[in-house]
Amino acid sequence: MTAIDLLPRLMGDYFSQDCTSGEFGSLKFIRDMEKVVCRAYLLQCKQFFSKETLDWAPGNSHLSSLWACSGTESHILRFKLIKEVGDGTFGSVWRAINKQNGEVVAVKKMKKKYYSFEECMSLREVKSLRRMDHPNIVKLKEVVRENDILYFIMEYMECNLYQLMKDRVRPFPESEVRNWCFQIFHALAYMHQRGYFHRDLKPENLLVSKDIIKLADFGLAREVSSVPPYTEYVSTRWYRAPEVLLQSSAYDSAVDMWAMGAIMAELLTLHPLFPGTSEADEIHKICNVIGSPDEQSWPQGLSLAEAMKYQFPQIKGNQLSEVMKSASSEAIDLISGCTYIPPPVRLKVLPKTPPCVGTKGVSENNVARRFSTGTLSTMKSHSSAPTKLNSLSKTGNPVLRHSRSLPENGRGAMQKVSSITEKLSQMSVTSRARSTVKPAVPMLKAGHGKSDFLGKSDDIPPAKRLTRKLVI
Ligand SMILES: Nc1ncnc2c1ncn2[C@@H]1O[C@H](COP(=O)(O)OP(=O)(O)OP(=O)(O)O)[C@@H](O)[C@H]1O
C-alpha cells in the first residue's frame, strides 16, 4: 500500500468535508459517475465497431469505445473545424462539430506525419488514453489517420487552467481550488492505480468546463510497470520534480504529485511556485522555497547530484507559508505533502559515466564543464555541515521536506501522510480573507523544456524570462 494507493481515500476524507457546494460532494458521486460512464461506453461500443473500424486488441482495454478508423472513406470530413483553440508542441487543437450528430468535439491534428496505423497505435497518448475511463480524464473518442495525418477526436472542454489564471487579478477562492484539486487527485489516483503516470502535469493540460476539470495530454504518459531507465526529457520545467531535474532514470508516479503541489500553489497565489529559467535555476528556486537537501533529508538526491557532478546551493529555504502568505495552513501542508512518497522503491542513481541517451545524452566531461561555469558556478558548493532545515509547518506540525527519502518503513510514512490529511480535513470551506490583494503580474505560459543542464546556456536573456514557452 503506497501513498498513491491511499490517495483516493485520503483525498476523499479531506475534500468531502468541504466540497459540498458542487456536484463533487462525495466520493460516492465519483464512483457513481464511473459506473454511469462505463455503462454508457458499453452501449456505445456496439455502434462504434464497424467494418472499417480497426479493432483495439480485444481484451487489452476495458474502454472499447475508441474508434480507430482506417480504409478509404474520409472520416475526418465528418467533422467541421470551427476554431483553433490550442497549439501545442505536438499538435494543434480545434473546436469542431460532428456533422452527423451535431456534437461539439475537440480535434487534435498531430504535427508529425504517421505513415502506418501501427505507428499511431503505439503512441503513448493512444495507448494510455484508450485505457482511461474516468470523469476527470478527457475522453479520446476516435483516432483517425488520413493522408498520413493523425487526428485525435476528443471530448471538448471550454478552456485550460492557465487561461483561467492569466486573466485573473485576485487569486481563486480556496474552495474553488479545493474543488478542482479534488477532481484532479481522483483522476491521478485512478490512472496511478491502473499503472500509468502522466509526467507532464501543468495548468495548460488541465482542462475546465464549468465546474468540471479534466486531465489531458497524455503524450508523455508512462506505464508504472514499464522498466526504467526513463531517459527522455519529461515535463515542463516549472512542474518538474527534483529527481527528474537530477536525471534520475527511475522516477515514478510521485512526479505527478510534485507537479500537483506546484500547480495548487500557483492556483492559490497566481504565481508559479518554481519558475526556473533553466534547470539549474529551477533547482535553485526549489531550494529557495524548501531548503537544500542534506544527507538526512534526501540522500538519494545528493547521490544523483554527485553522479552528475552537481553541487546543490546551500540555502536554508523559506517556509512555504512565507511564500504563500494568505493560503490556509492546511493547503500549505497538502502542498508540502505532495513532495512526499514512501522510501524509494526504485530509485536508481545514474552511472558515473552517463550513457548516451538521445538528445539528452552527453559526456561526463560536458556535465562537469557546465557545472563549473556559468550560473552554476555561482552556487555555493555543498558543505560538509548540512543545512539545518526548519521541519515545522505553520501549524507547528512536522512537514515532510524532501521526504522522498524518509528513513521509515512504508507504514510509518503513511501515518505521517494520514496525519497531514487529517489536518487538512479541518480546512475551512471558504478561503481566508486575504489581507492584501497581490498586484496582478503577467501570467507566464509554460512549455516543454528539454534539459538545459547540459546542452544549453543557463543565461537566458531577460526579455525571455517572462515566457513560459521556454524552448530549450
Ligand atoms: N479536449 C480538448 N478540448 C479543448 N481544448 C483542448 C483539448 N485538448 C487540448 N486542448 C487545448 O489545446 C492545447 C494543446 O493541447 P495538447 O496539450 O494536447 O497539445 P500538445 O501538442 O501535446 O501540447 P504540449 O506542448 O503541452 O505537449 C491545450 O493546452 C488546450 O488548451
Describe the overall structure.
The chain has 472 residues and is an alpha+beta fold. Among the domains are: 79-155, Phosphorylase Kinase, domain 1 (2-Layer Sandwich); 159-339, Transferase(Phosphotransferase) domain 1 (Transferase(Phosphotransferase), domain 1, Orthogonal Bundle), CATH 1.10.510. The chain is 33% helix and 13% strand. The protein has 15 helices and 12 strands. The protein has helices at residues 3-18, 27-48, 117-121, 124-129, 161-166, 174-193, 242-245, 254-269, 279-290, 299-307, 320-323, 329-337, 364-371, 374-377, 410-424; strands at residues 53-54, 67-69, 79-87, 91-98, 104-113, 140-146, 149-155, 159-160, 196-197, 206-209, 212-215, 222-223. It has a 7-stranded mixed beta sheet, with no helix packed on it. A 3-stranded antiparallel beta sheet has the order 8-10-11. Strands 9-12 form a two-stranded antiparallel ribbon. Strand 10 (206-209) and strand 11 form a beta hairpin. Helix 1 runs antiparallel to helix 6 and helix 8 (254-269) runs antiparallel to helix 12. Residues 1-10, 16-27, 29-70, 341-442 and 454-472 have low confidence and may be disordered. Bound molecules: adenosine-5'-triphosphate. Adenosine-5'-triphosphate (ATP) binds at residues 85-86, 88-91, 93, 106, 108, 138, 154-157, 160, 204-205, 207, 216-217, 219, 448.
Distance between the termini: 38 Å
User: How many helices does DSSP assign?
Assistant: 15
Count of beta strands: 12
Shape designation: globular
Query: What structural class do the secondary elements suggest?
Result: alpha+beta
Pfam family, one: Pkinase
Protein name: Cyclin-dependent kinase F-4
Family: Belongs to the protein kinase superfamily. CMGC Ser/Thr protein kinase family. CDC2/CDKX subfamily.
GO molecular function: ATP binding; cyclin-dependent protein serine/threonine kinase activity; RNA polymerase II CTD heptapeptide repeat kinase activity
